[in-house]
């Protein structure tokens, strides 16, 4: 009572907030200012996706496979067939369906290491629309505790600022692990950057060979009647003109050459280093596939026999690449969308592994083993299979 008397009239202290002790250290250099990404995502996307067939196929293969994985929504008690969140994911916005939106999100993460989802028209309820924002246009603004207080989206000099200090953040930021960046994720495209450069250079080299009759065909040697080995300027220009118009390019491939007096043709073949160049290109393609986690066999790359058959490669692709990406993204989306429901229930959005065709053989084996386990109750079996526990089920053991 005495202590309460002395406490009278003193202002109430603000509720304690929990934060990492390292937050102010992280934000010291840029609190309140935009933290720019340290990489040029536009150039990486141009050279590694739009300008490289292996990088393009890797991103398309992963993003399309991940977007096609069926999803299930459940909480601690039940699995939902109909829910506002499932309806939102089925029709996220007027321009995109579920598969298109998720493919764009997965592709952004693969290309830049970051994915940004915008919630539109929430007003304290489940958002009316979801939009995927381009990662190269987004910039993070850290606060004094190191966490983002805003995101800035810039297009052609115009900016829009998303405030993250409200009750429900309008932006969901999904990022890959980056060992040297506190705010942005690491892209597989960065890890494959050197291999992409090698592969692109090899493609340009091959194109140059095609433009020059597809091989270093040979040399024209001039021997004059008086022993001189040089042509007059007008003779040299005429010879170059004839070579360019009659003997270079794909349309002139195999065309016979007519040489006048004093000119001799010395054929030339590929050198050993030229023959190894194609192997270097194939090695670079395998390194690109390795960075993205795609079995080279699925890209049609020669010389790779890691898996016994295509079915094993496809199953490994789903288990090691597609499903980890889907599980990470859907878990973050489910946690973010749970805050909009208003009932305080935590929603668990996860891939429905029972409906993934590539895992059909594994699923059948697991279901058979679990169903034959007589020492497990029905509740324990459902938990092992990732199914919600039914309210009518008990926890007693079978038998």
Automatic annotation (TrEMBL):
Composition skew (Basic and acidic residues), residue ranges: 1-10
InterPro entries in the cross-refs: Phage/GTA_portal, Portal_HK97
Region (Disordered): 1-20
One Pfam entry name: Phage_portal
NCBIfam families linked: portal_HK97 (TIGR01537)
Protein name: Phage portal protein, HK97 family
Organism encoding this protein: Thalassovita litoralis
